[in-house]
Amino acid sequence: QVHLAESGGGLVQAGGSLRLSCAASGRTFSSNAMGWFRQGPGKEREFVAAIRWSNGNTYYADSVKGRFTISRDNAKNTVALQMNSLKPEDTGVYYCAAGPLAATTSTPYGYWGQGTQVTVSS
Fold first, then answer.
1. Predicted pLDDT of residue 57
2. What is the overall mean pLDDT for the chain?
């Protein structure tokens, strides 16, 4: 079992920045990758970014490339999502997930956090 806990959400004005963090505990060796997903009001959950624990390779949704950065700290079993130049359309609940590969779809991820709210005002 892998337990994931997100933190760092909040309210920010458009153009601002937030940093989300996800702490993983438990059988973390069973997952090779971490991902961030989000779900906006009335929308389906969508992929944001992913990273491999082993080599740090990163993957991003087109909508966040150049604005968001995903990183990991292997020693602390944490993954961060630095979000800059935030837009109102970035509003939603952000979830971190753990799985066997750095997928851009939610299905391969077997473990999910509870989510943290990010609200970007215009």
1. 96
2. 95
Three-state SS for the chain is: CEEEEEECCEEEECCCCEEEEEEEEECHHHCCEEEEEEECCCCCCEEEEEEECCCCCEEECCCCCCCEEEEEECCCCEEEEEECCCCHHHCEEEEEEEECCCCCCCCCCCEECCCEEEEEEC
Question: Are 46 and 35 spatial neighbours (Cβ–Cβ below 8 Å)?
Answer: no
Q: How many CB atoms lie within 10 A of CB 36?
A: 26
Task: Please answer whether residues 48 and 64 qualify as being in contact, where contact means their C-beta atoms are separated by less than 8 angstroms.
Answer: yes
Largest CA distance in the chain: 41
Please determine, for residue 119, whether its predicted confidence score (pLDDT) is greater than 80: yes
Contact 121, 18 (CB under 8 A): no
- Answer whether residue 29 shows pLDDT above 80: no
Q: What is the pLDDT of residues 33-51, one digit of tens each?
A: 999 999 999 999 999 999 9
Distances (CA, A) of 43 to 30, 52, 57: 30, 27, 28
